[in-house]
Specification:
The protein contains eight helices and five strands; from the N terminus they run E-H-E-H-H-H-E-H-E-H-H-E-H. The chain has about 180 residues and is α/β, with parallel strands linked by helices. Helix 2 crosses helix 4 and helix 4 runs parallel beside helix 5. The radius of gyration is 16 Å and the shape is globular.
Length: about 180
């Protein structure tokens, strides 16, 4: 199966972009973020897409970005926090090397303060974050081959845990077929 070497999923603020870039560097490959693809396509930040066109429009842009990236990208890929809400996206991720980066609400508060420009956390961010996680956690675990907790870990430690969990060697291309090893 061609496609990304690693796909990172998880909630906003978990560190998918930071860890993804570290993994790409360690594996000698490229990094891609579907949120950045959506921003490039729309020509404006995600918060503005939500406010101007609504969540449904954003989710359609996100779905297209994920499907394109999975078809084109062979390096490390990070998906937006809500990408797993789409059933066709979940089906597309089946059998792929997907890693769910998890964190609890206290870690989310510590990392992002839950007061940043996140459209889905605009009112009562702590409660909203918990509700989002209650709705999404099972979807993250459904698509993931492995889960790596990020709580109280540095990005470097998380990247190493991902490599260990997927049994990927650092520093070069993966041997044929290795990407399908659990």
């Amino acid at each position: 199966m061609s496609g990304p070497l690693i796909v990172l999923v998880g909630p906003m603020g978990v560190g998918k972009s930071t860890v993804g870039e570290l993994l790409a560097g360690r594996l000698g490959t490229t990094y891609r973020d579907t949120d950045a693809d959506v921003v490039d396509t729309a020509g404006k930040p995600i918060a503005e897409i939500f406010y101007d066109e609504g969540e449904e429009h954003f989710r359609e842009l996100e779905r297209r970005a994920v499907h394109t990236a999975v078809a084109e990208h062979t390096g490390v890929l990070s998906l937006g926090g809500g990408a797993v809400l789409d059933g066709t996206t979940r089906a597309l991720l089946a059998g792929r090397p997907v890693v769910y980066l998890s964190m609890d609400v206290e870690e989310a508060v510590r990392r992002v303060g839950l007061n940043t420009a996140r459209p889905l956390l605009a009112v009562n961010p702590r409660r909203q974050w918990r509700e989002l996680m209650d709705a999404r956690r099972h979807l993250y675990t459904e698509v993931a081959r492995v889960t790596v907790a990020t709580d109280e870990r540095t990005p470097e430690e998380v990247a190493q845990a991902v490599l260990d969990a997927l049994e990927l060697p650092e520093g070069g291309p993966v041997a044929p077929g290795r990407e399908n090893t659990p």
